[in-house]
Design brief:
The protein has helices at about 15-25, 70, 90-100, 115-120, 135-140, 165-180, 180-190, 220-225, 235-240, 245-255, 260-280, 285-290, 295-305, 310-315; strands at about 1-5, 10-15, 40-45, 50-55, 55-60, 75-80, 105-110, 125-130, 145-150, 155, 160. It is of the alpha/beta class and about 325 residues long. The strands form 3 sheets. The protein has a 6-stranded mixed sheet with strand order 3-1-6-7-11-10, with helices on both faces. Strands 2-4-5 form a 3-stranded mixed sheet. Strand 10 and strand 11 (about 160) form a beta hairpin. The longest helix has 19 residues, at about 260-280. The protein is globular and about 60 Å long. The two termini are about 15 Å apart.
């Protein structure tokens, strides 16, 4: 069983502690059975009593059932956001994280918990996601970190980081998918009433017009997703939206945080990953069905966005 340690410190965000417990606690083998054994053992670890925050206020105290030393024995350690976050973390936390990292434990942060990872020296020369409100401060304090303030989460192998709030849910579902495949992740998402649609590359800022409101591109996006295997041009998409290409680009970015063609690539990659995980189709056939035309085209986009090859991805995630 995969052990996840959620570290609770004084000033930790209450929701940052609860969200991993909820997601990993709902993860069962697929298909789920009422008597099935959970795939994760979630352990909240920390000092004897910690005060947590919500909305900038002290809200309740947590008595973790596991001491901090137990966190070092986990397979994954998650550090929540803290209030305040601009004070040095306790030395015992820093040493525990460094030791765990040396032993190959996967370590992650939620929101400004990334400052704890940075203080431990785990992010030097690496990319890290953080809430947009903390990006400038993180860059100034740790200039050797490539700070990403426009993504929901970043998976850098042994280090994972997420932006604030609900982005922690995206990160946790991503880890479930990475550990046990898409079927289990989808089942977990359904159990927690969460979508599996948001990707790590999606912008933190997303203005969604209501589907029924004037100017919404939701019907156009449904039309595009139904034609992923076709070669769609900006002119064709703009014609479908009954607008100019210039207006299409502006409205699309306002509603999705990206351009129409980049959105298409993301959805095609999502389709390709599903096919790699759930079918035995060749890479060439998947490239055609996902709209990349050739295996070369799929490999180029896959390597650039996902960071690996389709074949390596299939080895990791296929049942």
């Amino acid at each position: 069983m995969h052990v996840v340690a959620v570290v609770t410190l004084d000033g930790a965000g209450g929701i940052d502690i609860a969200m991993p417990c909820m997601i990993f606690g709902q993860t069962y083998p697929a298909p789920r059975t009422p008597t099935g054994q959970a795939l994760y053992d979630v352990r909240v670890s920390g000092p004897e009593v910690t005060t947590t925050f919500s909305g900038g206020r002290k809200t309740f105290k947590v008595t973790p059932p596991y001491p901090l030393a137990e966190a070092a024995k986990a397979d994954t350690i998650l550090v929540p956001g803290l209030n305040p976050h601009d004070v040095p973390p306790p030395p015992e936390i820093v040493e525990m994280l460094r030791d765990a990292h040396r032993r190959g434990v996967r370590i992650g942060s939620i929101c400004n918990g990334v400052f704890v990872l940075a203080a431990a020296g785990l992010l030097a020369g690496r990319r890290a996601a953080v809430h947009w409100g903390h990006a400038a401060e993180l860059s100034a304090r740790y200039p050797d970190i490539q700070v990403e303030d426009s993504v929901l989460y970043l998976d850098d192998g042994d280090i994972v980081t997420s932006a604030g709030g609900a982005a922690a849910l995206d990160l946790c579902l991503h880890l479930v998918r990475r550990d046990f495949g898409s079927a289990v992740a989808a089942q977990t998402a359904r159990a927690t009433v969460m979508p599996l649609q948001r990707d790590g590359g999606q912008a933190q800022f997303i203005h969604h017009a209501e589907p029924e409101s004037a100017g919404s591109l939701e019907p156009v996006m449904r039309w595009m997703e139904g034609r992923l295997e076709q070669e769609l041009t900006l002119a064709e998409i703009a014609e479908r939206a009954a607008t100019s290409v210039r207006t299409l680009n502006r409205t699309f970015r306002a509603q999705t945080g990206t351009t129409p063609l980049q959105w298409l690539i993301q959805r095609r990659l999502h389709r390709a990953r599903e096919l790699l995980e759930t079918t035995g189709l060749s890479v060439e056939e998947i490239a055609s069905r996902a709209g990349f035309g050739t295996a070369i085209g799929l490999r180029q986009h896959f390597r650039r966005v996902v960071g690996t090859s389709p074949v390596a991805y299939r080895r990791s995630f296929a049942p």
